[in-house]
Q: What sequence folds into this?
């Protein structure tokens, strides 16, 4: 098997005695880091930076967690440029073709240009196709639900399938739903490998042992992805050629997907310059294109699904708020038609409920950053290449910023001067803030609003088997994202009048 240099670098042996002195404490730290973030109340600046996870790359174990809005502002705004790298494990580096994507690229010219491509070309509101795929897939989900009225629906699985369909279609176009099952298997294996504990991340010399057979799994996962996306890229290239040969009489702009838009920057060799003209500023290879598509899949699927499911769960747990949201939908939209985008600005209570959901359940609970250089922050000295985790979950529940922080209370967002999530209020940062903040926020919010508005406008939902709202389990699973531990099940009945499904 051919080894990638990144895997290889972890392959030199080390003396066994080191294991007992170093691995055991590191393992302990690692396990600690996997527990849920700090409970509320630890938000004082004095405790804001604590030693925690040891970083990857064989750097000595420095790193810290941030759970106060003030320190988050230091890290994400004031000294942003010094905290704008991302830590990555061996698995992540290997599976992103050695940081060939946006999410794991180090802060610098390449990241800056690739981010421009994504923001201007892929995630921009101007790229109407992405927004269209949200509407089409939400419609298709509503039809699925309408066909199972009266029986229990696994809402968690349903919305995850929805967001997978949305991103799949936005990335690869509408014609290619056929390979989707294979692709989902590949994504699941990537996801497991991202989260897998690899001793070589902590002790590089111990990589040779590889007790879980990670090297082989990594190589296999990446070659499955290569096989899958290479053939999609080939199809797209072929499509371009044939289009260039004929057209002329087709004056209409052909619809494009994200692969088409990325191929506009394709070249055999990667290139970055500081040119103002994007087209000449960056050239992307196949590896770049594959890695960026994976960013979209990972950044835009589970996050949105988790937010939709949590919003539905919180509203079912709080029937008074659910009633208000549905009343607002009846008043603004009426029961004779479906919700449309132009209704959104009048759906104030719904928007507040979604904000409140993101406050209590930020889909990415810990923002992972790495220092580029030695930094001083809040009186602490942090060496270069330290991991810094910003605990968005704890910040959203900080009693110094929020009254009654553990309670789901959408009405708190009706007041004036409440923090907004656009990134300048560090009490509320579900999309992060600053250079590394979420570039897909608009698209993500649109999917979230569309999906929840449709689910609640088209159907009335009951908990199954006479379960009471207070019995609803609200535990989350803490990983890179924080979905619900137990999937939400509910029984829909139609709410609209006439044949609008
Ligand atoms: C409700 C939905 C979403 C939430 C809550 C969310 C949240 C976040 C957060 C917290 C970050 C990290 C910020 C930081 O480290 O400071 C992030 C980064 C990112 N998100 Fe999102 N996101 C969502 C939807 C999306 C969508 C729909 C896409 C793509 C279509 C996307 C693509 C990305 C990418 C590529 C990054 C990495 C950016 C970089 O490193 O420069 N996200 N997101
Ligand atoms: C997602 O797409 C698949 C394949 O087209 C379809 O069978 C499924 O019903 C869709 N799921 C949802 C929730 O829309």
A:
């Amino acid at each position: 098997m051919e080894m990638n240099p990144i895997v290889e670098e972890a392959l030199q042996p080390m003396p066994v005695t080191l294991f007992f002195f170093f691995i055991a404490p590191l393992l302990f730290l690692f396990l600690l880091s996997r527990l849920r973030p700090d409970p509320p109340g630890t938000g004082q600046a004095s405790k804001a930076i604590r030693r925690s996870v040891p970083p990857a790359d064989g750097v000595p174990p420095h790193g810290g967690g941030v759970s106060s809005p003030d320190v988050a502002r230091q890290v994400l705004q004031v000294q942003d440029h010094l905290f704008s790298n991302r830590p990555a494990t061996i698995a992540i580096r290997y599976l992103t073709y050695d940081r060939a994507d946006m999410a794991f690229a180090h802060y610098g010219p390449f990241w800056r240009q690739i981010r421009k491509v994504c923001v201007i070309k892929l995630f921009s509101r101007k790229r109407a196709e992405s927004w269209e795929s949200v509407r089409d897939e939400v419609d298709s989900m509503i039809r699925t639900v309408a066909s199972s009225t009266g029986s229990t629906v696994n809402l968690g699985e349903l919305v995850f399938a929805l967001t997978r369909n949305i991103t799949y279609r936005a990335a690869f176009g509408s014609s290619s739903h056929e390979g989707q099952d294979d692709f989902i298997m590949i994504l699941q294996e990537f996801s497991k490998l991202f989260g897998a504990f690899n001793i070589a991340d902590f002790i590089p010399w111990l990589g040779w042992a590889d007790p879980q057979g990670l090297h082989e799994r990594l190589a296999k996962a990446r070659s499955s992805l290569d096989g899958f996306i290479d053939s999609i890229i080939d199809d797209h290239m072929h499509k371009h050629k044939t289009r260039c040969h004929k057209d002329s009489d087709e004056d209409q702009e052909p619809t494009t997907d994200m692969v088409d838009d990325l191929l506009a920057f394709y070249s055999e060799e990667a290139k970055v310059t500081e040119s103002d003209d994007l087209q000449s500023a960056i050239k992307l290879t196949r590896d770049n294109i594959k890695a960026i598509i994976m960013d979209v899949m990972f950044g835009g699927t589970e996050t949105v699904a988790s937010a939709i499911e949590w919003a539905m769960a919180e509203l079912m747990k709080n029937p008074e708020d659910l009633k208000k949201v549905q009343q607002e939908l009846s008043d603004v939209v009426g029961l004779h038609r479906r919700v449309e985008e132009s209704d959104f600005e009048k759906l104030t209570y719904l928007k507040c409920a979604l904000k409140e959901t993101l406050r209590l359940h930020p889909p990415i609970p810990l923002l992972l950053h790495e220092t580029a250089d030695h930094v001083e922050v809040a009186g602490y000295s942090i060496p270069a290449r330290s991991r810094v985790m910003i605990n968005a979950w704890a910040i959203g529940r900080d009693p110094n910023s929020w009254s009654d922080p553990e309670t789901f209370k959408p009405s708190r967002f009706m007041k004036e001067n409440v923090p907004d999530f656009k990134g300048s209020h560090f009490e509320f940062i579900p999309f992060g803030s600053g250079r590394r903040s979420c570039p897909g926020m608009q698209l993500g919010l649109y999917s979230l609003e569309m999906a929840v508005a449709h689910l609640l406008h088209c159907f009335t939902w009951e908990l199954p088997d006479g379960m009471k709202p207070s019995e609803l389990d609200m535990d989350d699973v803490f990983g890179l994202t924080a979905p619900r531990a137990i999937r939400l099940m509910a029984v829909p009945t139609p709410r609209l009048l006439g044949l609008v499904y």
Observations:
- DSSP finds 19 helices and eleven strands in the chain.
- Residues 214-245 form the longest helix (32 residues).
